[in-house]
Amino acid sequence: MANAEGTNYNFIEEIIANDIEKGVIKAPVTRFPPEPNGYLHIGHAKSICLNFGLAEQFGGECNLRFDDTNPAKEETEYVESIMNDVKWLGFEWKNLCHASDYFDQFYEWALDLIKAGKAYVDDQSAEEIRQNRGTLTKPGVESPYRNRTPEENLDLFSRMTAGEFEEGSRVLRAKIDMSSSNMNMRDPVMYRILKRDHYRTGDKWCVYPMYDYAHGYEDAIEGITHSVCTLEFQDHRPLYDWFIDNVNVPHVPHQYEFARLNLTYTVMSKRRLLELVTSKIVNGWDDPRMPTISGFRRRGYTPESIRRFCKEIGVSKADSMVEIELLQHFLREELNKTALRAMAVLRPLKVVLTNWPEGFVDELPADNNPEDESAGSRTIKIGREIYIDREDFMEEPVKGFFRLAPGQEVRLKHAYIIRCTDVVRDAAGEISELHCTVDMDSRGGDAPDGRKIKGTLHWVWSGDAVRAKVNLYGHLFTLRNMNDMEEGKDYKDYLNPESLAVMENALVEPFLANAKPLDKFQFLRQGYFCADYEMTPERPVFNLTVSLKDSWGKELKKQ
Fold it and tell me: What three-state secondary structure class fits 298?
């Protein structure tokens, strides 16, 4: 089936289109239901774009719902970060909901199941329940407390709720089928005792519902028509339906599953991401090396590039590994059109233009973005002393090195042609500066006699260059597919020791000192960078967003 744009629907779009065509629904009601126990990552971005996108596409609505059923791990900080991320990606929810809004109703439905003989209080420990659950080839063993009367269970559950019992001493379980081939149907736990204050409900409750119990009921209360989950919940769908079918709900929702996002050089486990933060392997949830949405934002990624990426990878039922270079490609395409150009020297090497007129300072025009005429131009200054990147000089150049070397000419971007005449060393024998002559007739970069100059270098003038800190980021992990770790190895064994290099003494054009946090630039010949949150005019700080090299773009052109 094709949509209005003439492209084929994905399988979820096709389900919704058919439901509308048959009159099952007028428009879809979807939801994005994160647990507020951490910051959202790029995998959540796919789910956000899908759920909000479906509602927008078919004229429906999407709720933002916090599945806050575990007070031991949930915090207001996470709630606020999630709301910020959804808004930053460009989406607005119809209703802001919380599982905790429905705790009273969940409890009433639990009582209904107990009265119907479909739930019971189990005194077994968590370890005993686990051991008696059986295996994929061996049925589970029924709890010795499974056949308590509804009256006994109502009394015990009431006492659990009153705080009479200790954590771990009792749980409320659904009474389904201990020999089911689906492990999720083997009398799953519905409620456990947690004597923790909830960030919203305080100390009102000391029993809290499990996710599998609450999930379908939340959808039923909110009138969700298409409950879209990732594939790991496929085996949970019979349980989702069982809870719905066995009480009187106001609406019957349906669950559908799609493949989650797997990205190269990335881990998506909230537990592991939290460990990276708490163990200070990274500098917080928004460390630009993290796959969190806030980390991507701080690194300089745009919501448009992430949304385009999510659209391009599509929605399917089969797991696959997506190359992070594809996301980088979409980002480069956008930044090439929108980012202002600037010159920044990350590893400064002083160059003295020995024949430069004494006291003369030239002012040269430079385009702010050759891809965007409306971006205008700026004036850059040059005088007798400039800085180039140390990597742009080689005393004994190898074949194909067209940058600066003794006796070799290069073009200074927007400026003049220079030739290296002398190499000056310090007391330790290290190169401290270069002496060059400048062709004063080559203003603008063209040789007056038409000679060809192969190399063009970026540079800054010592008279107005601003010292800056530049963070160069790489992959946090060295393994392309973090799902393929060697047996016996931990994900930390694959941490990249070179994921961050800090250039404390970089020199940048003076206008960059006035950049605002998250302003984006292309540093000529270097890559795309953005101003960090720690940015100040006195101490500019920039983060490498992505390099200029784009191998993925070439691959896309072949397709």
Answer: helix
Residues in the chain: 559
Apex CA 39: angle with CA 33 and CA 43, to 5°? Answer: 65
Contacts 24+ apart (CB under 8 A), 150-156: 150/114, 150/115, 150/116, 150/117, 152/121, 153/114, 153/119, 153/120, 153/121, 154/111, 154/114, 154/115, 156/121
With a CB cutoff of 8 Å and minimum separation 6, the contacts of 554 are: none
| CA angle (521 as vertex; 515, 526 as ends), nearest 5 | 130
pLDDT, position 319: 85
The partner residues of 507 in beta bridges, in order of sequence, read: 345, 467
Question: Taking the mean position of all CA atoms in its chain, how far away is CA 460?
Answer: 34
CA angle, residues 474, 479, 482, in degrees to nearest 5: 110
Residues 6+ apart with CB under 8 A from 157: 110, 111, 114, 121, 172, 191, 207
Minimal CA–CA distance to 28: which of 261, 219, 304? 219
Q: What is the pTM of this model?
A: 0.93
The H or E element spanning position 366 is strand 362-367
Quote the Cα angle for 159-155-207, to 5°.
Answer: 40
Which residues make beta-bridge pairs with 457? 412
d(CA 510, CA 465): 6
Task: Give which of 235, 354, 248, 297 is closest to 85, Cα–Cα.
Answer: 297
Provide the greatest CA pair distance for the chain: 102
Give the strand pairing for 96-98 and 61-66: parallel
119-150 tens-digit pLDDT: 999 999 999 999 999 999 999 999 999 999 99
Q: So which residues are the catalytic ones?
A: 35, 260, 270
For 299, half-sphere exposure in the C-beta direction (CA atoms, 13 angstrom radius) is 29
